[in-house]
Structure formats: structure tokens, C-alpha cells
Amino acid sequence: MPADLTRQEAALSYHSYYHYSHWRDCGANTTDVRAMQSQAATAQLAAAAKLDKPVVLSEFGQSDCYCPAAEAVQAAGVGWFAWELINDHDQFGAFQGLLFANGTARSEKEVACLRQLAATGVEE
Fold first, then answer.
1. CA gap 115, 109 in Å, rounded
2. What digits encode the pLDDT tens for the residues 4-36?
3. What is the rounded CA–CA span in Å between residue 6 and residue 82?
4. Do the beta carbons of residue 60 and residue 82 sit within 8 Å?
5. Rg (Cα) of the chain, in Å, rounded?
6. How far apart are CA 29 and CA 31, in angstroms?
7. Mind listing the pLDDT tens digit for each residue in 91-120?
8. Between vectors from CA 118 to CA 92 and to CA 79, what angle results, nearest 5°?
9. Domain boundaries, the chain
10. Helix, coil or strand: residue 103
11. What percent of the residues of the chain are helix, what percent strand, and what percent coil, each to the nearest 5?
């Protein structure tokens, strides 16, 4: 392990989940999801700025949380990508994933939102 790993890494990556073990609360608490993710993104941006590195949210997928989380993170100026998009294929099947293995969407609304956000990108 290098003595100062921050010199070796090109960017910072973080994971952020809204009440990880209570994922069923996401849909009813989208305002809280956005606020929590915005606060986390702002904190990560500050840490990355001190190291002069870009930052990306590399894992945040929970049913009904994808869209509000991505909206907040993107508005804060942090890049993101969704993790675990295929539902019900491993130990995370109950609360992760937007698509079933047959290609149908678990939530058309969430898929449409993420497509729109991805098409929009982060404004500079």
C-alpha cells in the first residue's frame, strides 16, 4: 500500500444509501432522500476539493430512491452512476435494481427519471 494513496488515486468514489436497512421508506420520503443525498454530496465535494480530485457517487441504488438520490447528487455537481440495475439476481434482489432479467422495469417512472438526468448531465 502506498504511503500516500491520495497521490495515486485519480478521483474519489463514495457510496451513499438512504437508511440502508429501511429501503421501503424511500418512496414516502423523497424530500428527505434528496436532502440527505445533497448533504452527502456536498461533504464529498469538500473532501475532494481539499485533495484536488473529482468525485463520483458510485453506488446508491435502492428501489424508489434512485431518482431522488440522483437528482440531489447531480444538482450538487457530483457525478453518479447506478449500481445493481438488475433486480432479483443476488442477495440484494429485494431492494436493489430497476430492471428485471427479462428487461421489464420495476418502476417506469424511475427509469424515465434517470434517463432524463443522464441526458441532461451536470451543468458546469
1. 10
2. 766 777 888 998 888 777 767 878 888 999 999
3. 24
4. yes
5. 15
6. 5
7. 555 667 777 878 888 888 888 988 898 888
8. 75
9. 10-120
10. coil
11. 50, 10, 40
